[in-house]
Design a protein that fits this description.
It is a single chain. The chain is of the alpha+beta class and 402 residues long. It has 2 domains: 172 residues, no CATH class; 191 residues, Aminopeptidase, CATH 3.40.630. Helix content is 34%, strand content 29%. It has 11 helices and 19 strands. It has a 6-stranded antiparallel β-sheet. Strands 15-12-16-19-17-18 form a 6-stranded mixed β-sheet, with helices on both faces. A hairpin with a 2-residue loop joins β6 and β7. Bound molecules: zinc ion (ZN). Zinc ion binds next to loops.
């Protein structure tokens, strides 16, 4: 071997070592990013937690590629696209593209068998939880992809996306591994799950794509907050509001095709924010909140409707017109004194509503004549019927103006 051959060989070795070091450092970085986190035993769970999958914040920065680019460049190993492409085989991608809709979540099935899936919504929080039961393997955070505005996305969601954040939790049960994918969105979506060979596709439908008409009903107060009371709180505003809600709900569900969502149907206390978020997240057509009034002066009585003067100011039908409709019908049905309409921007659910909203102060618990009415279930049914009629008229008016 002469000097030149020797130097060439040394150069060759150094180059190989350099390549090896670069590859190793990449491999180590990748391992770190996807490393699982040991989690302390969660006292609320019976099962031993295996681990918590990496949360989106630990994943590499979001990479967005238009789907067309993915398809075009799938053989191009030089391209960055290859990194994404390694996660999705060519065959499954082609199959997937036939099924994806503009708004959907794609969850790659873990290896091996599983016993099935379930999907659950937590409406006021805009949350959807997808659960995979009895699986042989954990579901990984990196297996959760999403389709939005013709782009296939993974990793931490961007500000303008409809998915706000997500996490994956896996734990072992007798029947196998359970993995929960919890996702928070920008509003309520109706999840339609489609099972493919390698993926679960969760199509995200806006509620108005499923239901033509949507009304959100609220019963004021509840649970820890009884609201106003009479007879040493044996008569509570929260109970009367709930009765009124349930009567109205039944009337609307029996006689119309209007889909009803309620902030509560039992004696619990949703926060004001949750109540408003439900109506906003559903993009409800109308938002109705039942209350009763009270005053230090026992002589004060009557029915009042609170509305939002800022809502639909320019519209032919708005919060104020809906409030007037409700007041007219209620005064006729209950023969109470009119306390008129009141614009209250200081009330959370009224101020935040972007649809015609009414907060109904049915009558005064502090007035003996009004109290008799509020204690009479037949009168409460009359009140519910009056608002039922107002809702029907409201829809006529809304349709006329569209
Ligand atoms: Zn109240």
């Amino acid at each position: 071997m002469n000097e030149e051959q020797f130097l060439r060989r040394i150069a060759g070795y150094s180059f190989a070592v350099m390549l090896l070091v670069i590859c190793l450092s990449f491999a180590l970085r990748y391992k770190e990013e996807y490393n699982v986190v040991e989690q302390e035993r969660d006292a609320t769970r019976q099962e031993e937690l295996l681990y918590v999958e990496a949360t989106p914040t630990m994943l590499p920065e979001v990479t967005m590629y238009p789907v067309e680019a993915l398809v075009q460049d799938r053989h191009d190993t030089e391209s960055e696209v290859w990194e994404v492409w390694q996660m999705i085989s060519q065959e499954s991608m082609v199959k997937l593209l036939e099924h994806v809709s503009d708004r959907c979540i794609l969850i790659e099935k873990p290896q091996g068998k599983n016993a099935g899936w379930a999907v659950k919504e937590n409406l006021p929080y805009y949350q959807i939880t997808f659960t995979l039961h009895g699986a042989e393997e954990n579901l990984l955070a990196s297996s959760v992809l999403r389709m939005w505005e013709n782009r296939l996305l993974f990793g931490l969601p961007e500000e303008e996306e409809i998915l706000k954040n997500y996490s994956v939790l896996s734990y072992e049960e007798e029947a196998g591994i359970t993995s929960e994918v919890s996702m928070t969105f920008d509003r309520c979506y109706y999840p339609q799950v489609e099972e493919q060979e390698e993926y679960y596709i969760i199509h995200l439908k806006k509620y108005h794509e499923i239901y033509d008409k949507i009304v959100v009903l609220d019963a004021g107060h509840g649970g820890k907050d009884p609201g106003a009371g009479a007879e040493n709180y044996r008569v509570k505003e929260s109970d009367i509001a709930l009765k009124l809600l349930l009567y109205l709900k039944e009337l609307l569900e029996t006689n119309t095709d209007i889909k009803i969502f309620c902030t509560r149907t039992e004696d619990v206390y949703p926060t004001l924010q949750e109540r408003a978020d439900l109506a906003l997240g559903m993009e409800a057509d109308l938002f109705i909140s039942w209350h009763c009034n009270a005053s230090e002066s026992s002589g004060r009585s009557g029915t009042q409707i609170i509305y939002n003067a800022e809502q639909g100011k320019e519209d032919a039908f708005n919060s104020k017109s809906f409030a007037q409709l409700c007041l007219d019908k209620l005064l006729f049905a209950l023969e109470t004194k009119s306390r008129g309409l009141s614009d209250r921007q200081d009330l959370h659910i009224v101020r935040r509503a972007t649809m015609p909203v009414v907060l109904i102060e049915t009558a005064y618990l502090s007035n003996s004549k009004d109290l008799e009415l509020l204690k009479d279930d037949e009168k409460l049914k009359d009140a519910a019927y009056a608002v039922y009629e107002a809702v029907l008229t409201a829809y006529e008016r809304l349709e006329e103006n569209n």
